[in-house]
Design a protein that fits this description.
Blueprint: E1 8-12, H1 19-29, E2 36-37, H2 55-65, E3 73-75, H3 88-107, E4 112-115, H4 125-140, E5 148-152, H5 165-174, E6 181-186, H6 187-193, H7 200-210, E7 216-221, E8 223-224, E9 235-236, H8 245-253, E10 262-264, H9 275-284
Parallel strand pairs: 1-2, 1-10, 2-3, 3-4, 4-5, 5-6, 6-7, 7-10
Antiparallel strand pairs: 8-9
Helix pairs in contact: 1-2, 3-4, 4-5
This protein binds fe (iii) ion (2 copies) and zinc ion (ZN).
The site of zinc ion has 5 residues, from helix 6.
């Protein structure tokens, strides 16, 4: 039997003049079989209307290239903080922006969006978790799309929630639209949160026991600049961080994760995107210690 194609890509910007068509072209130029994008800058709420995004042209190229559209991922901007109970205007923005973002994602015919569950900013994790649940229920009762929200596992930087599988499970259990929510597992974040990522089988068993592997929608593939439990969230290039190539490659090729899109969010090396080389090494299972020199 032929080896199944690994579903792997990276985060890619959606920039003019070609917008979505340009995003797809860029992903293909790195040899990606899927990709993740933002509908605008991740740090702000400025969004241009989706009619200008060359969505039809992008989708035509997706079809032609053999990328399965169902594996494409969108990421919500970081400024959405559904766990903030301290500042009412932050919470209002979280709701209205998530609502409009879900509509935009459905305009792309993309089926899922990754969302950071947020930070409780001093009110405590329980208050933050409840707030996140309330925001999700309110938004999902109104949005009228079928886009799934993948709650991302967080590193535990500052007052982030969603740092343990138990907290993620608590959020999922509180949402009244179970078919609309799932999880994004980030290898850097779980490392920084204190999980032993090197025991990949053990980690996935723990995820399955607490949350259920059927809830896993996306895996973010990142090395970490920091050791286990550092609570930092600083991504490193593959093989250049504390996790290392061997462990990361186990996630990429793990039989339990075959159908799940894997997305790199590693930093540029200088001005150069690292994704073509990183993906090539991961898919071939061979690490080249000098890979950065070939960019
Ligand atoms: Fe993220
Ligand atoms: Fe991530
Ligand atoms: Zn991160």
């Amino acid at each position: 039997m032929a080896k199944e194609k690994i579903i792997i890509g990276s985060h890619i910007s959606l920039a003019g003049p070609d917008y979505y068509l340009g995003t797809v072209k860029e992903a293909l130029s790195y040899g990606e079989t899927t990709f993740m994008f933002y509908t605008g800058a991740p740090q702000n709420t400025i969004r241009i209307p989706t009619e200008r995004f060359k969505i039809d042209e992008g989708r035509a190229l997706i079809k032609e290239s053999g990328i399965d559209e169902a594996t494409i991922v969108c990421h919500a901007p970081y400024i959405i903080n559904p766990a903030n109970t301290i500042n009412p205007s932050t919470l209002d923005l979280a709701k209205s922006f998530l609502l409009s973002e879900l509509k935009r994602v459905s305009d792309f015919h993309v089926s899922m969006i990754v969302l950071h569950p947020g930070a409780h900013v001093g009110a405590g994790p329980e208050a933050g978790i409840q707030s996140c649940i309330d925001v999700l229920n309110e938004v999902l009762s109104q949005d009228g799309t079928d886009v799934k929200i993948a709650i991302e596992t967080m590193a535990g930087k500052g007052s982030e929630i969603g740092v343990t599988f138990e907290q993620i499970k608590q959020i999922l259990d509180g949402v009244e639209y179970p078919k609309r929510v799932g999880v994004c597992l980030d290898t850097c974040h779980v490392n920084d949160a204190g999980y032993d990522v090197h025991d990949v089988d053990g980690l996935l068993e723990e995820f399955d026991r607490v949350i259920g592997l059927d809830k896993l929608l996306v895996v973010h593939i990142n090395d970490s600049k920091n050791p286990i439990g550092a609570h930092k969230d600083r991504h490193s290039n593959i093989g250049l961080g504390e996790i290392g190539f061997e462990t990361i490659e186990k996630f990429v090729t793990h039989p339990k994760l075959t159908k799940i899109p894997k997305i790199l969010e590693t930093p540029y090396i200088g001005e150069k995107p690292p994704y073509k080389k990183e993906i090539e090494m991961l898919v071939n299972g061979k690490y080249d210690p000098d890979w950065q020199k070939d960019l």
